[in-house]
Amino acid sequence: MFIFLELPHLSFIQLHFLIGYRYDRMLSEMLGHLERQPLNKERRVAWLTLIGPVFDAMGLFLLAHFRRLFSLFFQWMHTDDDKTVLLVGKMFYFLSSI
After folding, report:
1. Exposed (0-12), middle (13-18) or buried (19+): which is 48, by Cβ within 10 Å?
2. Which of 19, 41, 81, 87 is close enough to 48 for a disulfide, judged by CB 3.0 to 4.6 Å?
3. Is 8 helix (H, G, I), strand (E, B) or coil?
């Protein structure tokens, strides 16, 4: 059994904006949690490991969070954890290729 939702006729730009808004809210929530506990090693390693596909899907919406992202990245670059430093370096490379 299939249930179809009838949406009002949305243009491609309006639909893209709604999807982008959801990504924006999700990333804002994640960054808020990371900013409250920036030294939690398990959280930052898991986040850096798994966030790549989300960044890839967000595209230009990442610019809205540029300042918050890079302040966390620079803070994490100065940790004593080698795995975090390596993951942040990979994330810089990944973001520069988008």
Report:
1. buried
2. 87
3. coil
Residue-range domain boundaries for the chain: 41-98
pLDDT per residue as tens digits for the range 58-83: 877 788 888 999 999 999 999 999 99
> What's the pTM?
0.74
pLDDT digits (tens, 9 = 90+) for 6-51: 555 545 555 555 566 788 888 899 999 999 998 899 999 999 999 9
User: What span, in angstroms and rounded, lies between the C-alpha atoms of 31 and 35?
Assistant: 6
Q: Which long-range contacts (CB under 8 A, 24 or more apart) does 65-74 make?
A: 65/24, 65/27, 65/28, 65/31, 68/31, 68/35, 69/31, 69/95, 72/31, 72/34, 72/35, 72/38
